[in-house]
């Protein structure tokens, strides 16, 4: 079910401050964030966030299309390298 | 015989049912169409007057996205997710279920027919 509109988008409060500080500093360095549950807002467009996936910070360059998604969606938490081919497998 | 929304030629079924042969129109929208045009439920497609067919066509053109347009819109939505590099897009790319279902077993609709695993012995009697 979708979130009620009257609540507005969810995000952790400190996100805005972090984004402002990064903009003010001018240099585009990766902003490290742990808040994967925060919504991507229009004012984040163009910034690069390092979204923590439990192990490392995945750099995410926010584009216009990403507005409305959550940060966590762009930082996969699982790695799957496929199943190893069994060399001992015999043909019958 | 009546052509509505492009290529669809529903047969001599009741209008309500015949309309559901159009991609993008199910029972709900078909009911909406028939009631808003005042077509009785027992009316069949071959008993429709040309005027009524025209009205149905106009209503669908105006209010609903059907057939090719709808298919294109859905494909575009999926493509957007895939280009975005978000989790749902990755799942679409790999042909795995998108909505968090289990994949340990089942998920055969997305994964397709089961592939045999090399070296696994068959239990035979």
Automatic annotation (TrEMBL), chain B:
It comes from Paramagnetospirillum caucaseum. Residues 95-125 are annotated as: Disordered. One of its GO terms (cellular component) is small ribosomal subunit. SUPFAM superfamilies: S13-like H2TH domain. Part of the 30S ribosomal subunit. Forms a loose heterodimer with protein S19. Forms two bridges to the 50S subunit in the 70S ribosome. InterPro entries: Rbsml_uS13_C, Ribosomal_uS13, Ribosomal_uS13-like_H2TH, Ribosomal_uS13_bac-type, Ribosomal_uS13_CS. It comes from the Bacteria. GO terms for molecular function: rRNA binding; structural constituent of ribosome; tRNA binding. Keywords: Ribonucleoprotein, Ribosomal protein, RNA-binding, rRNA-binding, tRNA-binding. Belongs to the universal ribosomal protein uS13 family. Located at the top of the head of the 30S subunit, it contacts several helices of the 16S rRNA. In the 70S ribosome it contacts the 23S rRNA (bridge B1a) and protein L5 of the 50S subunit (bridge B1b), connecting the 2 subunits; these bridges are implicated in subunit movement. Contacts the tRNAs in the A and P-sites. The lineage of its organism: Bacteria, Pseudomonadati, Pseudomonadota, Alphaproteobacteria, Rhodospirillales. HAMAP family: Ribosomal_uS13. This is Small ribosomal subunit protein uS13. One of its GO terms (biological process) is translation. Pfam families: Ribosomal_S13.
